[in-house]
Each structure stands twice: as C-alpha cells, then as structure tokens.
Specification:
Elements (H helix, E strand, L loop, with lengths): L4 H8 L7 H4 L2 H8 L13 H17 L11 H17 L4 H5 L7 H16 L4 H24 L13 H7 L6 H12 L2 H19 L7
Helix pairs in contact: 1-4, 4-5, 5-8, 7-8, 8-11, 9-10
Length: 217
C-alpha cells in the first residue's frame, strides 16, 4: 500500500468511533494500516498534521459534486443544503466537528466551494465586503452546532448519558424555573435535523435584514 496523507487520514477517521479525538494515536492509525508508526511521519509529522489531513478528507467528502445554484434556485435554500452536506459529513464519525474546528483545510475543494458561495451571495445582492462576513457565520454555526450535537450523545460519560431527556428534566426544578425547565426538555427532545435547519433559516433571515437583501433576490 502506498502511503500518503489522504490514505492515512482516511484510515484514521473510523478510529474516532473508539475513543474520539483524544483517544486517537499515531500508533493506532499505523496499526489500522498494517505498518509501523514511524512510516507515517514521512507524510504527517505529528497528530496536528494528522487532524488537518482528516479535516481535509471530511470537507472534501462533504462538498463533492457541489455546483453553483441552478437557475431559479433560492440562494438561501442552496446555502441550507450546503451546510447540511457539511453537517452530514461531520456526523459520520465521532468528534467529526472537533476534527474540523480550528484545523487548516488547505485544499482546492475548499477554495472552489468558498468561491461558489461568495459568488452566490453576490448574485443575491450582497456587496463584496458583506459576503466575506456572511460565509464564516454559516460555517461557524454549522461546526458549533455539530460539536454540541455530538457532545450530547454522551459517549464521553462512563456512567451514562446526562443529556437524556428524562435526566435533564429531573435536573431542573420546574417550580422555581418553569421556563428553563420547559426549554431544556424541548431542546433535548427535539429533532436535531429540524433544529439545525431552523437555526440556519433564522440566521439567514437576520442576514437578509441586516444587509437589506429583498426576498426573492
């Protein structure tokens, strides 16, 4: 097997399901590839570079096949779909969002999709200055949402998941904090897919109003 950074990263991603980012080691990755750990250091110098390579694979997989909006496609719908693709890619592996957060994804696919997004926003009526503010907002919301979403699986808690709706309900005194009690129950019992899109729509509505973009443009 010919080793390169992408091959190593691709082998490392499934290992996240057993121990997450914190439990990932170069030795484990080497074992999955059937080689000795020193062989990896020719291609990724350390765990930081390994995580960068893994983030690159996650992002490339997310945007594979993404094209500019077709004629008649609403720019907001296109952005929601794009963010949804990224979320789906991150959810494939434990700590997928933690892998992407703060990493250096230097890849042609990143620049291509960024350019498509900026152009889509400009075509919708945003100024060249404003588009550079909108894109990071959507990216950071998506990564942050999935970090929280994956944390709520409770896999890092050896004594059980504290985010179970019944357990959350019992942790809040409903008589003293009735609004908070209702909120936390709703949050932890809600459909994450629906809540993710709802949050995106709220952000986009705010963006549209802030930058005075008329509906339909």
């Amino acid at each position: 097997m010919k080793l390169d950074a992408r091959t190593i990263a691709t082998a490392a991603l499934p290992l996240l399901d057993d121990g997450g980012v914190d439990g990932l080691t170069m030795r484990k990755v080497a074992g999955a590839l059937g080689v000795q750990a020193p062989a990896l250091y020719w291609h990724v110098k350390n765990k930081r570079e390994l995580l960068d390579a893994m983030a690159r694979v996650l992002f490339v997989n997310a945007v594979d096949g993404v094209e500019a909006p077709r004629r008649g496609t609403d720019w907001q719908d296109w952005l929601v779909e794009l963010a949804g693709r990224l979320r789906a890619s991150l959810l494939r592996y434990r700590d997928g969002a933690r892998v992407l957060a703060g990493t250096n994804v230097s890849d042609e696919s990143m620049w291509r999709v960024t350019e498509l997004t900026l152009r889509t926003l400009e075509d919708a009526g945003f100024s060249a200055r404003d588009v550079t503010r909108v894109f990071p907002i959507l990216l950071h919301y998506t990564i942050g949402y999935v970090i929280e979403e994956q944390a709520q699986t409770g896999v890092d808690y050896p004594d059980g998941n504290p985010y179970q709706p019944d357990q959350v309900r019992q942790s809040v005194d409903a008589e003293r904090y009735p609004l908070t009690s209702r909120m936390v129950v709703d949050v932890f019992a809600s459909d994450p897919d629906a809540e993710f899109e709802h949050g995106l729509r709220v952000i986009l509505a705010g963006v549209r109003t802030t930058y005075d973009i008329r509906p339909g443009t």
